[in-house]
Amino acid sequence: MIADLPFFTLRTQTQTQTPAYLRVLLLTVASLLLSVACTTLQPTTNISAPEYIDEGELWNITWEIQPAPDSIVIGSVVRTEPTGVHQMRVYADTSVFVRIFVDDLVVIDTLSVSVIPKPNESKFKVYDVEESDSANKYMVGQTSVDRVEKENRKFRMDVFGFSRLHYPDSIVMYVHAIDENGNFVAGMAPPYGDSSTAEKYFRGLVEVIEGEEYPVSDFVVREVHEDITPPNSFGLALDYSGSMNLEGRIDFLRSAVRNFVNSKRAEDEVSGLAFNHDLAFGIEATQSGAEFMNGFASQDRFPDGGTSILWSGGWMVDYLESRDIRNRALVLLTDGEDNSSFMQYLLTNISLWKASDLVYSARERNVNIITVGLGQNVNQRLLQKLAYLTDGQYYHIDAPNELVDLYRALPRMFNNYYTITYKPHLGTGNRAVKLAYFNNVQVDSVTGEVSVGDSVDFAGVQDYPSTSVAYFSLASADLDEQAKQNLQILGHELAAYTNLNLHIVGHTDSEGSDAANKRLSKRRAERVANFLIKVVGIEANRVTTEGAGFERPIYNPEANEFQKSENRRVELIIQ
Hints:
By secondary structure, the chain is of the alpha+beta class.
């Protein structure tokens, strides 16, 4: 509750060696200022909300403020009227930050609500999904634990993510139980199953922190299905760089997106953007799968250009924050490494160009990131870090046709799962959480990773993405005007980061011998380095060069001319 909160605090300090007449004058002025402040700056505020509501009920936050404030920010929603009501449909205990702005003053407080759960019936009806009878590693159907037991079928458990919102009081681990045909195994925990079944299948939990094991003595398992889960807001970030033209990848991606919107629930919404070195196109959030696909088809075009994974992912996270829905998730797909986010940052001055930028932005906005890496040219460690540092999951896809199955399954995976809630061992940083479970044949285990605390650890992963800063004609080391313009912008920005060193790597296409390509790539790197040092003014001791030849191509083999062109590049690596 907030009621009649002061907008400032008067602080006094003991004064010594001050003449009496001056003290009288100061007190008189202070008294006048205080009188004016109290009559002009301190409005009457009355903000209220119920402390308890039923699960799924609308939570009404009401306010009455006189005179009218400049703005009231409730979570991420901005209002300006002096009286009003803000409604949220709430399914779990939650807190909302409220900020009131008057001139240069701000009041910050928190409203909290406790949710009264639905009656715990002895046996809930398991949501009816058709059972799959063919092998699939993703969730494509559903079966009951009774049938699994009867047929002595084996299943596995996968960690889907975590929630740290109530740390240090609790951490929630999200788990799927999947049989060999891709069926979710239902009925193993309350309220759909019973506690004895949960004890049979969920055997134990251990936290592993810096190599030390901390067994969890008590944890609670609950089963969740899509008939009671709150709505989701999905954001699809899709790689539309030139490499998506290979192996029919773009056609499989279109089919995958269609499967995604067809599999989601009616109450779930989906938005999306396609990215290359820039934003290719975007689609506003909608609950209509047909409307989304119409927007996708109308803006669809031939993929080209580089890749701006981090910068574009930041755009999508920022958009999802505007959606007034509790569950928000970014599904980010790429088939390559980020080579354009830093340049986009320089061109737009939008600071979303480092891996840590994207992680902190997603955490602040309560957006989970699911990363999907397609093929062998992705930075798997980076994609894994982005996922687990934001309580999401990473999926690696070798063949593009597998995208179709994964994207069909993802909406179901968000709405059918088991939660394991436990009291964590205190401490911040990265930790592993190991679940022992009975797979209906023997005891097995699965491990997930979670990071708690405000800071994030990118050990073993390059936080600063490499950036392709120049492209070259065949057998040439000459900088064109576009490359010079890019280097001017980049160099002037980097001149201020005196703690950063620059490693410049030249590359070639497959034409020519290894020895010739080594020499050519070295000249390309040195040409860029000389421009940054002599024209822009970067200190020479901050710059190193390398000629990689054709050892680290973006495309191999080079089936098209655009692949050769993108391989003839110079990359800048910030260290």
